[in-house]
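Technical annex, item 7. During the second reporting period the consortium partners agreed on a shared format for inverse folding records so that results from different sites could be compared directly. Each record opens with the tokenized structure and is followed by the designed sequence. A conforming record, contributed by the partner at site C, is shown below for reference.
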């Protein structure tokens, strides 16, 4: 039986933060914002949310695969961003899908697509539903809409040990994928934060960014070939370690966000499970001193698996808000060789920038689970579970990410920090919190990941959050950054992506879509105008 996810928030229905976790977080927030108490709204129950009746008639032959019941439609209505949970708390779901299909084979997908084409329904491909950009959300202008959940296509079909690759179905969730590799020497290790509740097909469709902070940052680096069912036919690319034969067809599919077809399978590169690990954390007086060290490491060709620079006040408990300190979580891992030389050289670079390493972590075999690195890891894994509690208390807790080349980094970082602080003050009438960290780093620049907090007015909190994020995203693109480094475009980022992307490219993409999806039925409104 499939484990039931929470329909209104991150995680599974049978898991919660502990009372201690909530109490300690409430204490921190109350102290920071000087709040005497919280007004806590109860989470929604599924039967408290009215949905309009389904507008499709499912043909008898498809009835075993297609659900039109209240819960299935509700569960597939929104992704998992703060604003999605907020709308669930408002009991407001005006545009649910009319039906949700659960195909078990590619042939089933083709049958469902044929039915949608004949009945004039739009189609939304659905992986784990962890989109934070309205990627799986129907809009009011769809006359009929069918969501196709890939949940049943969840197998590792083949492992090629010689080339270290596997053929895997698109609907597999991260943990189930790794479980199926358990009896092999291999792992995929695309541990992005939403790994537990997202799928290989979703990662490919959104160009997700995973665990590796350098070298294999995006899913692009894992994909050897793809197989996609489009309304026009099936597009399968050739498995190759590399190719210079024209523009890459995989590159067209990777990041296509469901507008061209449904990714049913991919061959992905695996690696041997790591046996050697060296991990520590390094403290810097300022974020910019840490950034200099990260640039040095990235440009030295050292390629740590983790190289996350955090403001200490965001990553470490008990750091005063006034602190300017930064902490670098640094990990090297390998299945093949000792990493002492890489770590020594990285620490030398850090020392040159004034960094002080946590020596005790270096001596501890489980250093990635202790000290600052461990504290960061715990926060990273638990953070998504706090969103619903923030919404329930009218607190802003959201993020956005971008990237910038090093030569513009200082000004860009200062500008976006300031714009974000101003946007929160403007929307809420009080000071909020803005922090920045690097999640991925390249020789030519970092991915900057901003976290925003503040106290909202529950009556208008959705508008307040939207206005803050819109201001921040617009500034990001206006100042030369990307609208997203790894959270995808969806419907939410599209206006900013429109500004960033060359118009001629948009025309080329529309032409490709017309060829693969002549009726324009696949996820309209995502990436490009319908
Ligand atoms: C708490 C949290 C943490 C996150 N952390 C990260 C992170 O660290 N890195 C990161 O990159 N993202 C992150 N995200 C965003 C999200 O998890 C990614 O975009 C993820 O790749 C989406 O995968 P999914 O299977 O959930 O796809 P869905 O949310 O179901 O769909 C996302 C998009 O892909 C399309 N799609 C899904 N499956 C297919 C398919 N088989 N074929 C064609 N199109 C398809 C959908 O139509 C939609 O446009 C996070 C989200 C949350 C809520």
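Designed sequence (site C submission):
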């Amino acid at each position: 039986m499939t484990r039931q996810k929470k329909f209104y928030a991150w995680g599974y229905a049978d898991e919660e933060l502990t009372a201690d976790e909530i109490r300690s977080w409430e204490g921190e927030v109350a102290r920071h914002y000087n709040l005497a108490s919280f007004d806590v709204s109860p989470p929604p129950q599924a039967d408290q949310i009215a949905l309009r009746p389904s507008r499709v008639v499912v043909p008898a032959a498809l009835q075993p695969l297609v659900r039109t019941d209240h819960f299935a439609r509700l569960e597939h209505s929104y992704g998992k961003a703060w604003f999605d949970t907020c709308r669930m708390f408002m009991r407001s779901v005006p545009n649910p899908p009319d039906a949700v299909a659960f195909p078990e084979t590619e042939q089933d997908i083709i049958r469902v697509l044929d039915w949608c084409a004949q009945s004039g329904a739009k189609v939304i491909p659905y992986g784990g539903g962890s989109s934070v950009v309205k990627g799986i959300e129907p809009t009011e202008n769809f006359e009929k809409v069918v969501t196709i959940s890939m949940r049943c296509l969840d197998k590792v079909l083949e492992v090629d040990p010689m080339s270290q690759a596997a053929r895997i179905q698109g609907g597999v969730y991260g943990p189930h994928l790794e479980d199926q590799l358990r009896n092999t020497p291999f792992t995929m290790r695309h541990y992005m934060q939403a790994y537990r509740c997202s799928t290989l097909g979703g990662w490919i469709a959104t160009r997700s960014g995973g665990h590796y902070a350098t070298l294999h940052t995006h899913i692009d680096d894992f994909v050897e070939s793809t197989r996609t069912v489009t309304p026009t036919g099936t597009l399968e690319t050739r498995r190759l370690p590399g190719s210079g034969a024209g523009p890459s067809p995989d590159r067209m599919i990777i990041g296509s966000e469901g507008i061209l077809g449904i990714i049913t399978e991919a061959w992905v590169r695996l690696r041997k499970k790591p046996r050697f690990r060296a991990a520590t954390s390094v403290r810097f007086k300022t974020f910019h001193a840490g950034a200099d060290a990260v640039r040095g490491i990235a440009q030295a060709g050292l390629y740590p698996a983790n190289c996350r620079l955090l403001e200490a006040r965001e990553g470490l408990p008990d750091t005063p808000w006034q602190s300017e300190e930064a902490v670098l979580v640094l990990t090297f891992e390998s299945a093949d060789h000792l990493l002492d030389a890489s770590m020594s050289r990285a620490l030398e670079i850090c020392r040159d920038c004034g960094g002080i390493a946590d020596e005790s972590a270096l001596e501890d075999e489980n250093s990635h689970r202790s000290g600052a690195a461990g504290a960061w890891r715990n926060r990273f894994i638990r953070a998504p579970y706090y969103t619903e509690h923030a919404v329930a208390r009218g607190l802003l807790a959201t993020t956005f990410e971008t990237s910038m080349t090093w030569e513009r980094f200082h000004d860009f970082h200062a500008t976006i920090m300031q714009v974000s602080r101003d946007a929160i003050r403007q929307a809420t009438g009080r000071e909020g919190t803005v922090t920045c960290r690097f999640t991925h780093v390249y020789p030519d620049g970092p991915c900057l990941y901003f976290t925003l907090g503040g106290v909202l007015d529950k009556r208008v909190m959705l508008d307040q959050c939207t206005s803050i994020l819109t201001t921040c995203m617009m500034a990001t693109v206006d100042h030369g950054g990307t609208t997203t480094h790894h959270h995808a475009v969806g419907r939410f980022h599209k206006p900013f992506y429109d500004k960033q992307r060359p118009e001629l490219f948009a025309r080329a993409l529309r032409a490709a879509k017309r060829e693969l999806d002549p009726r324009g039925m696949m996820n309209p409104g995502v990436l490009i105008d319908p």
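The domain at 46-149 is CATH 3.30.43.10 (Uridine Diphospho-n-acetylenolpyruvylglucosamine Reductase; domain 2). Residues 10, 79-80, 124-132, 135-136, 150, 170, 192-194, 198-199, 201-203, 205-206, 208-209, 257-258, 262-263, 384, 486-488, 523, 526 surround flavin-adenine dinucleotide (CB under 6 Å). All partners now use this format for quarterly exchanges.
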